[in-house]
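To illustrate the input format used throughout this study, we show a single complete record. The first block contains the structure-token representation of the backbone; no residue identities are included at this stage. The design step must infer an amino acid for every position from geometry alone.
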């Protein structure tokens, strides 16, 4: 009996490798936990961040990336896992030395963005880093430009607009979305997978990126310019055809290192001159 207990203790002290992100249930759990980070209750935020940390998302992403035969779906999952891990870190106590490194890198990036803001005469409006930042930032911009009524200027409205546009223009977006493994649709998502992706854009904390920005540029017929700390300094997304609102540009800042996150967007508001 003593030897048996000793063997069990020895086995339990051996760290096990983290499991890969292997099924939709774990993806759903990750999205649910990300949504909980929005909760006003700090205890809920901390607990959700802890569970995300315990999922060893960076290690899972590394395993997926090391696989030479990784599918496009696996590579997409790896990117999402790293973003989720970074966001969880932002809501968890940080190691001071690691935080100092992140802050230096973020400052270098911020300096480049600040210089562009001065040239464009805009100021940065901070958006909550909750997985909805792209949509919240564009909601702020569209309200400023008078494109969306203030009472509708929220990420829920903008997510729905992006999802609806992508869903109704599959030929424009399918080639640029992550292919699903074992798809029989010429390497593209199946109709069911495409529907699921659009549903995720609409109703989860799935990060928005290039496809969603382009969709919103076309849906609202407005130019969207993204300012970043690397070259090119401005990435322009233009709607097809003549502009419906000449001169109107929605401006965002794109951060790779803000708060230690993999990706983050803020809204760039026009500089308001103070009366003398």
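Output of the design step:
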């Amino acid at each position: 009996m003593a030897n048996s207990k000793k063997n069990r203790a020895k086995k339990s002290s051996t760290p096990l490798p983290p499991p890969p992100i292997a099924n939709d249930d774990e993806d759903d759990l990750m999205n649910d936990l990300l949504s909980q980070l929005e909760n006003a209750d700090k205890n809920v935020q901390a607990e959700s961040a802890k569970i995300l940390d315990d999922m060893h998302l960076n290690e899972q992403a590394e395993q997926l990336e090391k696989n030479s035969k990784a599918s496009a779906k696996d590579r997409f999952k790896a990117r999402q896992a790293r973003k989720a891990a970074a966001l969880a870190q932002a809501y968890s106590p940080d190691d001071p030395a690691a935080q100092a490194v992140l802050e230096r890198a973020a400052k270098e990036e911020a300096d480049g963005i600040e210089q562009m803001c001065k040239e464009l005469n805009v100021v940065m409006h901070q958006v909550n880093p909750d997985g909805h930042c792209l949509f919240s930032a564009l909601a702020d911009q569209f309200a400023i430009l008078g494109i969306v009524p203030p009472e509708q200027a929220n990420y829920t409205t903008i997510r729905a607009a992006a999802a609806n546009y992508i869903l109704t223009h599959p030929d424009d977006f399918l080639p640029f979305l992550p292919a699903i493994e074992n798809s029989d649709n010429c390497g593209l998502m199946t109709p069911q997978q495409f529907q699921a992706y659009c549903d995720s854009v609409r109703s989860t904390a799935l990060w928005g990126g290039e496809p969603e920005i382009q969709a919103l540029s076309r849906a609202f017929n407005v130019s969207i310019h993204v300012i970043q700390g690397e070259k090119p300094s401005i990435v322009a997304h233009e709607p097809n055809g003549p502009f419906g609102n000449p001169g109107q540009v929605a401006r965002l800042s794109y951060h790779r290192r803000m708060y230690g996150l993999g990706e983050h967007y803020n809204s760039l508001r026009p500089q308001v001159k103070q009366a003398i």
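Structural context for interpreting the output: The first helix runs from residue 2 to 12. Residues 1-93 form one domain.
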